[in-house]
Give the backbone structure.
Amino acid sequence: MTNLVANYVLPDWSLPPGVHACVSTVTSPGNLAVHVGDDPSAVIRNRRQLGRELQLPGPIKWLKQYHGSRVVDYRDARLGEAADAIIAAQPNSVCAVLTADCLPILLAADDGSQIAAVHAGWRGLAQGIVEQTIAQFKCSAGQLTAYIGPAISVDYFEVGRDVRAAFNRDQLVDEQTFRPHINGKWHADLPQLAQRIMSTAGVREVTLSGLCTFSDKRFSSYRQRPDCGRIATLIWKN
């Protein structure tokens, strides 16, 4: 279950005191990516609106996501840093990733000491972006809580043999994660794959949004329209 407030999505996810999370939509505040052909001034306005409406305590250090496995620290990250995850420990920090069908994953230590945001397409997920991020936490994986935000659901994510082969490890491939389709194709369940990877790493509490970017018009979907905008999934601490 997810609560909707002022057209933003507030995860129904138990977080430590002082830690907050939110997901933007295509209307609130609109596209937040500069690489999809949108007017840069409009993107800047949307980003400023996001900060105002969510009363964010610090700046967002937007990443240049590239479907890899690099994690950066919020303290050191520059605007446009090439990475697919960002982690922070200090107060007044905001971690965010942009998505349009890929998985946005948020992580928080049980005591609120560290937070992280992860962008995980199938390539990044297969390359270990989730495990790399978990390894950056000072606490054990068992002391983490995770949230998997809106992403393309299994019913709409058709993939080929290459994607299935990329996950042929750690008992990740079965009829739940890769449902047989037609002509050598499968429907892949990215959220379930991420959940299993985190469970294998030792994360016990994983909350799934259950929201599909392909079928829910509040979100951007690259598979529906490659030139679509991007939504943000954020976590911050005061």
